[in-house]
Amino acid sequence: MLKKSPTIFFGVIFITMSLLSGCQMGDSSQMSKSEQRRMQSTFNSLQESHRAALQQFKKDSASMSDDIKILYLQMQEMHKQMSMNHRHMMSGHDNKGMGMQQDNKQMRKRRQMRRQIQNRMSREWYGQMQSMHNQMARRHEQMSHPKRARQHRKMGEGYGKMKKMVPSNDESSKEPVNENADPAFLNGANLYTQYCASCHGTDAKGIGKVFPPLVNSKWITGEKSVPVRIVRDGVSGEIQVSGKIYNGTMPPFKARLSMAEIAAIINYLRDSSDGDHPHITQDDVIEISKTYQNRNNPWQPEELLGE
Ligand code: HEC
Predict the structure, then answer these.
(1) CA dihedral (153, 159, 165, 166) positive or negative
(2) To test ligand 1's pocket by mutation, which of 81, 195, 246, 250 has the most ligand atoms within 8 angstroms of CB?
(3) Whose CA is nearest to atom 19 of ligand 1?
(4) More reliable by pLDDT, 194 or 86
(5) Closest CA to 271 of 189, 209, 207, 180
(6) Least-confidence region, from 22-26, 112-116, 197-201
(7) Tens digit of each residue's pLDDT (9 = 90 or more) over 123-182
(8) Can you tell me the distance from the alpha carbon of 259 to that of 232, in angstroms, rounded to the nearest whole number?
(9) In sequence order, what are the residues at sequence separation of 6 or more whose Cβ sits closer than 8 angstroms to the Cβ of residue 28?
(10) Among candidates 27, 76, 29, 85, which has minimal Cα distance to 54?
């Protein structure tokens, strides 16, 4: 009897733990009600700042240079996509009713997985908005618009805060691993959806006038170093893609994607394009990254040509 009691004791603990992890409280992908409220109110105040910044810009856009007009256009496009994503994520956290009895374990698991993906996408989006506004703040500073620079700096901070509010204890929040991965075993399509589809579209055919297509783009199918350099450090300025001119800014991904992941995404896009394009290996990416390791700002399209 005495010998058995530790077994019972641990058994009880075990059952309690599994019960807890089964219900919402133990689910680390889920925001509590108060976290949701905090998130939503930060979002609402950013919406207001966004409207104010746009209004201000429209009032005196005549005196603005073309490159800043493009930044505002891109900000609007990104804002639209980000807001859609935000609403989607929030509805995933808003579990209507407790439904614990009707919900079976499998359903809960599936919902949790969906939420983790959504959380990851949202962190990505808020991060993109953050760097977008920081970029705009820098540009306004250069043009001696301190007030507007401050406004964008603050919005950047707001998105930084949002990014931190999204639960991130799923495994995808780990730092990118650069060693010992074979791109062939990674799912390029999933990685594409997670990191690139927000701007380039789920079908990689581009969105509107700001985000160019990637399927059949010569920047993807060309010499290996070209797409790798673009994904690592981003690209900015006038660029011709499949006969159309674009002029925006793509953020760098080298801090977010491992070498193998970069290769897997590009290989997926090369495979989806017409013709035969040799696969890029992790070693290729490592080699190219070494050559351009001191690069710290987005590429200008003309720098990527003819090397
Ligand atoms: C925040 C939005 C955004 C995200 C996310 C993004 N891009 Fe881009 N990308 C752009 C923009 C804007 C341009 C055009 C830049 C310009 O006009 O100079 C671009 C251009 C490109 C180009 C060169 C032009 C073309 O269409 O071929 C490639 C290649 C590219 N992106 C690949 C990727 C890949 C791969 C990912 C995911 C790892 C990605 N991008 C994620 C915004 C984004």
Answers:
(1) negative
(2) 250
(3) 250
(4) 86
(5) 189
(6) 22-26
(7) 888 988 888 898 899 889 998 999 999 999 999 999 999 999 999 865 444 444 444 467
(8) 9
(9) 167, 169, 170
(10) 76
Token pair belonging to 100? 């614990």
Ligand 1: centre distance to CA 298 (Å): 11
What pLDDT is stored for residue 1 in this prediction? 43
Name the residue with tokens 């931190």: 164
Give the Cα separation of 18 and 112 in Å (integer).
Answer: 15
- How close is the Cα of 199 to the center of ligand 1, in Å? 7
Between the alpha carbon of residue 303 and those of residues 215, 225, 239, 298, the distances in Å are 22, 12, 11, 10
Please classify residue 121 by burial: count the beta carbons closer than 10 Å to its beta carbon, then call 0-12 exposed, 13-18 middle and 19+ buried: buried
Highest mean pLDDT among 6-10, 48-52, 167-171, 253-257: 48-52
Tell me: the pLDDT tens digits for 14-50? 444 444 444 444 578 889 999 999 999 999 999 999 9
Provide the token pair at 85: 């994503």
By the 8 A CB rule, do 30 and 24 touch?
A: yes
* CA-based nearest residue to 304, from 206, 225, 210: 225
Two tokens at 8?
């019972």
Q: Decide if 214 contacts 200 (C-beta within 8 A).
A: yes
Residue positions counted in the chain:
307
Average pLDDT over residues 67-94: 86
d(CA 192, CA 207): 15
Q: How far apart are CA 162 and CA 126, in angstroms?
A: 7
Q: What is the mean pLDDT of residues 91-111?
A: 73
